[in-house]
Amino acid sequence: MKVIIIGGERVPYFLAKRLIGSGYDVYFVNKSKELCDEYSRTLNATIINGDGTSKYVLDQLQIEPNDIIVLLTERDRKNFFIARLVQEYYKVKNVVTLLNNTENEDIFQRYGIRTLKVTDLIMNNIEPLLFGNKVMKDLEEELTNKGAEVLMIPIEYDSKIAHKELKELNVPQDMLVVGVIRKNRFIISRGDTVIEPGDELIIVCASERRSEAEAFFRM
């Protein structure tokens, strides 16, 4: 059984790293050559640089019916297209997708496509959907033992970091902005992501740097 992750940026890295550590055969598909090159250096996974909507690209994965497909692109329409493609052509039953707009949930459910709520994506929903709650409990315990924490920091209207691109902030190396919740939608953070008032930043940092991280992002 393979776990095939299509799309996304930083979220797939943490998910893939955990699954690889648990002995799963992980495949990663992304259009970004830069990201694929980075993951090729840092992950023991099969990395394919290509468009997940292309059947030619999907054929390279040798998808089987018992594989798990995880769709993490930022567009529901694209996730739905890929989900239906793998269901129809490869007879895959276990398809999980990021839900960017809750108004689209019914259409996914109608076709048996399980959805990840955006606000739960980082915290606790991917692995329970794939393998059950025990895996997530183990992960949380492992993160705690290793001194890692996940923070969700709201951006106030008078914040000094509002209206700035993420790359302008010079975030310390031991702090990572993995995503932004904006108007109940999850946005994968990139260097050119502009932080807006009302956003909620999802931060991963070392436990001993929690207070510093909160001070840094609450400027």
Automatic annotation (TrEMBL):
A molecular-function term among this protein's GO annotations: monoatomic cation transmembrane transporter activity
Q: What is this protein called?
A: Trk system potassium uptake protein TrkA
Residue stretches making up the RCK C-terminal domain: 137-219
Positions of the RCK N-terminal domain? 1-122
UniProt source species: Fervidobacterium gondwanense DSM 13020
Q: Which Gene3D superfamilies match?
A: NAD(P)-binding Rossmann-like Domain (3.40.50.720), Regulator of K+ conductance, C-terminal domain (3.30.70.1450)
List this protein's GO terms for biological process.
potassium ion transport
InterPro entries documented for this protein:
NAD(P)-bd_dom_sf (IPR036291), RCK_C (IPR006037), RCK_C_sf (IPR036721), RCK_N (IPR003148), Trk_Ktr_HKT_K-transport (IPR050721)
> Which key words tag this protein in UniProt?
Ion transport, Transport
